[in-house]
Amino acid sequence: MRVPSALTIAGSDSGGGAGIQADLKTFAAHGVHGLSAIAALTAQHTRGVTAVEIPPPDFLQAQIDACFDDFRITAVKLGMLGTGTVIDTVADALATRDVPVVVDPVMVATSGARLLAEEALVAMRTRLLPRADLLTPNLPEAELLLGHPIGSLDGMRAACNDLLALGAHAILLKGGHLADGADTVIDLLADARGIVELPHPRLRIEAHGTGCTLASSVAARLALGHPLREACEVAGDYVHRALAGGYRPGRGDVRVLDHFGAATA
Questions:
Q1: How many structural domains are present in the chain?
Q2: GO cellular component terms (predicted)?
Q3: Which of 41, 83, 208, 214 could form a disulfide with 254 if both were Cys (CB 3.0 to 4.6 A apart)?
Q4: Which CATH number does the domain housing residue 155 bear?
């Protein structure tokens, strides 16, 4: 039996809580075979990022080609793509491949470290957003993409429309950074049919890898054949459970998500 495969093209987290490592755990928790093409190497732990190394573009291309040459890939998740050259390489590699793509526009780490070069913003807007079946920014990432602050739920709605206008087919805008003191976090899912709210009780936990896990969960559901809106709703619930069951493996205060415990809830 050949199970569906999902490919993550993203950065490796040596601390195991985010990036490629979180993506592969999420795929496995959903019963999907996980593939990876490493677009960046990071030296990091629960207290921060200490170094970043970008592999040569031709090696990244070789990884992507190797995966598509052998596996039945039914969804792709994009994460940390640190430079314009990397983004161009990935966009070119996916241009002729008919597969749904979930783009997590990783720009800033939980620790505050900048993970996307300034020149890559243009490539992100022009090459990746039009290829995205779903874009999953948090508020700081959406602000960088749009060039203006987002300070309210109404502002989030306007931002969704602005991001759709840049070419993404659908937007899952995460509201966890909204500084309104509310006990409920509201994410917005926007597509051609309109905007729907996806609320969850706020968990006041400093965590690591939530964005990677959400995008990978959506990609896994798409790989299994689920419709996009259903995939987003189920993925949000999955991340909430994984965050609630999170643990602290390092000496920092940041928690890592319980990917497998959440899958059995």
A1: 1
A2: cytosol
A3: 208
A4: 3.40.1190.20
This prediction's pTM: 0.95
Tokens of residue 185, six digits: 């976090």
Q: What is the pLDDT of residues 20-61, one digit of tens each?
A: 999 999 999 999 999 999 999 999 998 888 998 999 999 999
